[in-house]
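re: that chain from earlier
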Amino acid sequence: MRTYVLPLCFSLFLPFAQSAAATATSEDARAVARLYSAAFDREPESEGLNFWVDSLEKGVPLTRIAQKFNESEEFISKYGALQDDGFVRQLYRNVLRREGEQSGVDFWLGTLADGAPRASVLQAFSDSAENRRKTDDLFADMHLDGEEGWTYA
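^ sequence. v structure.
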């Protein structure tokens, strides 16, 4: 399994295979919520958030959840059948709220050309410092409510 070092602008070192904890924490739930933001450019609905956090608790890695998001009907109907360039540019728009600078786009296109799966690139954008800053306030109160499951409102 390959491990990639991402550019400093993303401030993280991310192995593509990530194992989940047996019991989800609020940070696990935030990671799923950030993934929604990065993939769909929207907040997660309660049912979906809880489904995917439950999946994470059962051992489904976050990269697999990212793959499911990328392959979902919602993703495809929202963005169409994106080529790699369009996929990377859409992630820039969703996460950074701007068009990607050419050197960054080229880096991610090279990463994909080198064999990295789209799910790993989606997860890297989701876990980036930029996306964390964008979503910190929104998901700050992420907590487990006995009746509702994970919630942040």
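The chain has eight helices and four strands.
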